[in-house]
């Protein structure tokens, strides 16, 4: 079955279904290693740069006050590489390490998600409604080495730090700063 999506005249399901059918029938080679950030986002950025793909935003965020953040594929790629460097260098994380991110859905949430994909770091999202007890449980169960949050949510993390034996770094997202925390904005 084919249908249009949100008023777009392009058919979406037919090509997707036929692609997956070809994989199921072993007519397509699957890559041994796949990384969405490098294999998809960077490829789309290259196609846009070469003029073989129309320029469209890769990311478009609007808040309740009408503030917008719009990134092209090239900008998202560049920013996610910088954020991946922050995670691996400043935070000391390696491929396979875990990061707990308790943030509202601000642009950095998506940026860090892509950066983790790029660096092979496991991104564990959490809602900003988590209590200190919930945060401690997630830190202990996941053995996360980094915690990412906003300056307003940081006190809940600080209250459980003595019981978080695996945590190596703490990263603040947004305009605020906090003693003992790294600032994503400054590091980018």
Structure overview:
The chain has 188 residues and is an alpha/beta fold. 41% of the residues lie in helices and 19% in strands. A 5-stranded parallel beta sheet has the order 6-5-7-8-9, sandwiched between helices. Strands 1-2 form a two-stranded antiparallel sheet. Strands 3-4 form a two-stranded antiparallel sheet. The longest helix has 18 residues, at 73-90. It catalyses: a medium-chain fatty acid + ATP + CoA = a medium-chain fatty acyl-CoA + AMP + diphosphate. Residues 56-175 form the AMP-dependent synthetase/ligase domain. Belongs to the ATP-dependent AMP-binding enzyme family.
Concise summary:
The chain is of the alpha/beta class. Helix content is 41%, strand content 19%. It has one domain: Rossmann fold (3-Layer(aba) Sandwich), CATH 3.40.50.980.
Uncertain stretches of 5 or more adjacent residues: 1-5
Which shape, going by the Cα principal axes? Answer: globular
The largest sheet, given as strand count, sense and whether it forms a barrel, is: 5 strands, parallel
Encode the helix/strand succession as letters.
Answer: EEHHEEHEHEHEHEEH
Strand order of the largest sheet: 6-5-7-8-9
Overall radius of gyration: 19 Å
- CATH architecture label name: 3-Layer(aba) Sandwich
Ends: how far apart? 45 Å
State which percent range the strand residues make up: 15-25%
| Quaternary structure classification | single chain
Structural class: alpha/beta
GO molecular function: ATP binding; fatty-acyl-CoA synthase activity; medium-chain fatty acid-CoA ligase activity
EC number: 6.2.1.2
Family: Belongs to the ATP-dependent AMP-binding enzyme family.
Catalytic activity: a medium-chain fatty acid + ATP + CoA = a medium-chain fatty acyl-CoA + AMP + diphosphate
């Amino acid at each position: 079955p084919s249908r249009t999506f949100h008023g777009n005249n392009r058919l979406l399901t037919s090509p997707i279904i036929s692609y997956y059918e070809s994989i199921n029938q072993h007519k397509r080679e699957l890559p041994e290693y796949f990384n969405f950030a490098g294999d998809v986002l960077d490829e789309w950025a290259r196609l846009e740069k070469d003029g073989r793909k129309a320029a469209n935003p890769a990311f478009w965020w609007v808040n309740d006050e009408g503030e917008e953040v719009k990134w092209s594929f090239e900008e998202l790629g560049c920013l996610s590489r910088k954020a991946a460097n922050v995670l691996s260098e400043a935070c000391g994380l390696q491929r396979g390490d875990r990061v707990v991110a308790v943030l509202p859905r601000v642009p950095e949430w998506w940026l860090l998600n892509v950066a983790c994909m790029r660096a092979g770091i496991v991104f564990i999202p959490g809602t900003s409604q988590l209590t200190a007890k919930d945060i401690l449980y997630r830190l202990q169960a996941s053995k996360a080495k980094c915690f990412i949050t906003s300056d307003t949510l940081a006190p809940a993390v600080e209250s459980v730090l003595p019981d978080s034996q695996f945590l190596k770094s703490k990263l603040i997202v947004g305009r605020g700063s906090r003693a003992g925390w790294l600032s994503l904005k400054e590091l980018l």
